[in-house]
Design brief:
The chain is mainly α. It has nine helices and two strands. The longest helix has 22 residues, at about 70-90. The model is unreliable at about 25-55 (pLDDT under 50).
Length: about 170
């Protein structure tokens, strides 16, 4: 909202006022698909207002270039992107991880982009601080967003292979 106002984008401000603040139970109750809202509003906000893809490292096709993935895997990426929001988000409405899942019996790792406007990093970090787990670590990607595994693939893979994998084997 703040960025839309700064940009003088009255249409986006009006749409965000219409959607209202989280939690978004109204979306589920009225059968408005999150997918449609996400594509029409958030894509615009990310690309125009936040200069989201301007890190110089982000290749939107990177997820389809992984050589270890089969053609079926790549098709399933698309299926997950198209259908995931409508299936997953309604299950998360009203869920409070801090209250509902305060403790787990497995290692937990957060790899979070500081420029992530999809998964709010402050909320993720607050949860991390309260979560009880046998091993837990929080990794910040300073210049990346929601897709840090593609934006800084080297750092992401180094964390997985040099830190997480040895701790969990």
């Amino acid at each position: 909202m703040e960025n839309a106002k700064k940009a003088g984008d009255k249409k986006t401000v009006e749409k965000l006022i219409e959607i209202g603040p989280p939690p978004y139970q109204a979306w589920v109750k009225t059968k408005i698909t999150l997918k449609g809202i996400q594509m029409s509003n958030y894509t615009y906000l990310f690309s125009k207002l936040f200069n989201y893809a301007d890190t110089g490292n982000y290749d939107s096709m990177a997820m389809f270039k992984a050589t270890e993935q089969s053609i079926v895997d790549k098709i399933n990426i698309i299926r997950g992107l198209v259908y995931g929001v409508d299936v997953i988000y309604p299950q998360l409405v009203g869920m409070n991880f801090e209250k509902d899942i305060p403790k787990v019996e497995v290692p937990v790792y957060f790899l979070t982009g500081k420029k992530d406007y999809t998964t709010v990093q402050d909320i993720a970090y607050r949860y991390y601080e309260k979560l009880e787990a046998p091993i837990k670590k929080f990794y910040w990607f300073e210049n990346e967003g929601h897709n840090n595994c593609y934006e800084d693939n080297k750092k992401f893979m180094d964390i997985l292979t040099k830190e997480i994998l040895p701790e969990t084997q």
